[in-house]
Amino acid sequence: MQDGDRALGAFLDQAPLAAVMAAAARMRDLGHGTRISYSRKVFIPLTRLCRDVCAYCTFAHPPRDGEPAFLSPDAVLAIARAGAAAGCNEALFTLGDKPELRYRAARDALDCLGHASTIGYLAAMAELVLKETGLLPHVNPGVMTGDEIALLRAVSVSQGIMLESTAERLCAPGGPHHGSPDKHPAARLETIRQAGMHAVPFTTGILIGIGETRAERLAALLALRDLHARHGHIQEIIVQNFRAKPGTRMAATREPTREDHLWTVAAARLVFGPGMNIQAPPNLAPNHLALLVGAGINDWGGVSPVTPDHVNPEAPWPAIAALEAATNAAGKELVARLPVYPAFAREAARWLDPGLVPAVRCAMDSDAYARCEAWAPGLALPVPGLARRTGVATTATDDILAKVETGAALAEAEIVHLFETRGEAAARVCAAADRMRADVAGETVTYVVNRNINYTNVCGYRCRFCAFSKGRGHAHLRGAAYDLDRDEIVRRAREAWARGATEVCMQGGIHPDYTGRTYLAITEAVKTAVPDIHIHAFSPLEVMQGARTLGLPVRDFLRELRAAGLGSLPGTAAEILDDEVRAVLCPDKLSTEEWLAVVRAAHGLGIRTTATILYGHLEAPLHWARHLLRLRALQAETGGFTEFVPLPFVHMEAPVYLKGGARRGPTFREAVLMHAVARIALHPLIASIQTSWVKMGRDGAAAALAAGANDLGGTLMNESISRAAGTAHGQELPPAEMERLAAAHGRPVRQRTTLYADPPAARRAASFAADALDPVIETPFRRHVAAR
Ligand code: SF4
Question: Three-class SS string for 211-265?
């Protein structure tokens, strides 16, 4: 035992329980803040036959006439499907240990199922459940060899075995583990070690009250801590309290007292430190949930809305709403997690089989907790409730909000904190953003009548999120490659003007034959045909590309564009302004510094730009914070941004999602918070925060208007980039519908120009009297022989 362990042992021996619990709770708060997690699961008891005979167990029993030795694949799937329908994330396979070594019935049943061992059948069923339902398997099959662990690693996101105890005397005659070879501590420790060798996110813990002493509990916890120190793979320590069950050899044994339970939970926290997940099952101590929180837990384990706890059938799971209320009453927030904990899911390449990573990404949010909703940007689904006001204390959030009200800039960690808020804290962030919006932008909701013209979808770049672009050789993928004739571009601009537009927003792929001359020619053609329309065009990438092809400095090329009629630049191609993310998401695109340099040059010439963020794919809140801080710094320097436009990632057709490399876009909470936190972090430098109706949907846009947004963006007329990504919210939101959306929110509305002036009355009248659009002509891709 190390000196520190001896000192901890002395503290645990001598300090009053209240002091031990307080120390543990403080330590938990350092690592987990206000969050208490749980996993929404179904419990699949694959077999209740077991070669062990533990004296307290009612789960396992010998073969029974008329009862199949194993659940059939159909029975397994029926349970899993019920779980998926009830919104579960986890399929927990708990089963007896190697029953085929004890019972002929088990061997015969496995023969019929076509498997040589229970572990082999388990692997097949885990794979089936994942494939058919998307539930993430967690497996608890008992003692395993390294090969068995490796087999199961390919089909499960986490594995587990309770160490229970390191006291060998519990295996002696008369002890609870007598006759149970798999309960020998050395065998279980070796399984846990092997799991570490195979990089398996692993769940373990101790069972208290089966005859061990407090010193023996501490020894078991220290043994686990030492294994974790070597391999880093233990994701959770369960402190399970023995329950005396009628009909068992230990039916008359006294259960551990509440104090003993709390002491052990606190000891586990103090042994493992702030970061470890310490769990106590809520159904085994339903009368002292708040005390368990006070003793340092941060997790309730798996809770099922569908299946009973087959190991403790006398102890029903709490309803999740009741568990949430109890958690809130203890001053904490209940958060759903996956069976693989966030720290392990974030490091998927190290901890998960590559075949499982897409399913995990699909099921997680930006913090790697569970995604609990079907909604995603671009899908025509009802929006979830934003944030239930759970009554959780939010001192840290309130302190940050108080700081920003003084006009002070927030630090990176403070912005990350705001992005990670949930429940009551998230509601307060949105309310603060709404107040700041009223201060700097007033009550009026604005929008612009415009038309998007995406002149080509041919692109030589390989942005992994982009469903719009077509390589020259991939015309068959996601529709045909096109390259609009100049006449068609002009026709669309004229039609936009006739329909009341004050702006054309023009961007396209980086066609390998386009040069700076092409962009100049497009600008001149539109400006000549429709002199009064505002040309909002060319992403910083296109500007950089155009300048490079002409051998000009960016500043000189921007001057030429302005002389040709350019009014302002869209601040697209920003994605996430952090090279760590760009290296994976869009490795051949311009870098963060290059994007900032182009925009700085534009602002220096008096050319205003918007600013955007594309979020909800493979980045984390830390990257959002860095992005906002970079925009804030540039705005403080130049004042050139007109607005900030959050663009939630639409996953459906995005290559990076289809290849399993991205999440399903932001959750609704994240999407709304992006508007709110941007409002706060950019306050008061950027006065306009826009919400994208084409990605958020109308109800989502309305929620953003209540959380700091003041602008609905453009009517678009011909949106095609989000449509290519799979959004179902349409291509145009005409003025009357824009105004209905704002009015439904109880806010006045104003049509604006690109630069936020009032449009002439004739423009507004034309926009409300617009005819239907004529069909568009999409000129097929062709090579350009000369600069156009
Ligand atoms: S995002 Fe733009 S640059 Fe990237 S592939 Fe798509 S069209 Fe090309």
Answer: CCCHHHHHHHHHHHHHHHHHHCCEEEEEEEECCCCCCCCCCCCCCCCHHHHHHHH
Q: Which atom of ligand 1 is found nearest the CA of 508?
A: 7
Residue found under tokens 């986490």:
158
Q: Mutation test of ligand 1: which of 456, 469, 591 has the most ligand atoms closer than 8 Å to its C-beta?
A: 469
Atom of ligand 1 at shortest range from CA of 586: 4
Is the peptide bond prior to 512 cis by the omega test (within 30 degrees of 0)?
no
Confirm or reject: Cβ of 456 under 6 Å from ligand 1: no
689-711: pLDDT as tens digits: 999 999 999 999 999 999 999 99
Segment 370-410, tens digit of pLDDT: 998 999 999 999 998 765 556 565 788 999 999 998 888 99
Judge whether 68 and 110 are in contact, CB under 8 Å: no
CA distance 141 to 149: 10
Residue of 465, 576, 589 to mutate, ligand 1, most atoms within 8 A of C-beta: 589
Query: From the CB of 467, is ligand 1 less than 6 Å away?
Result: no
Long-range pairs, 113-121, Cβ under 8 A, ≥24: 113/70, 113/72, 118/46, 118/47, 118/70, 119/144, 119/148, 119/151, 119/152, 120/151, 121/46, 121/70
What spatial distance separates the first Cα and last Cα of the chain, rounded to whole Å? 78
- Give residue 389's pLDDT: 54
Model pLDDT, residue 87: 94
Q: Report residues of the chain scoring pLDDT below 50.
A: 473, 475-476, 785-788
Determine the pLDDT at residue 786: 47
> Minimal CA–CA distance to 716: which of 450, 448, 378?
450
Q: pLDDT at position 787, please?
A: 45
CB of 561 within 6 A of ligand 1: the answer is no
Position 116: which residue type?
Answer: A
> How many helical (H) and strand (E) elements, i.e. helices and strands, does the chain have?
30, 18
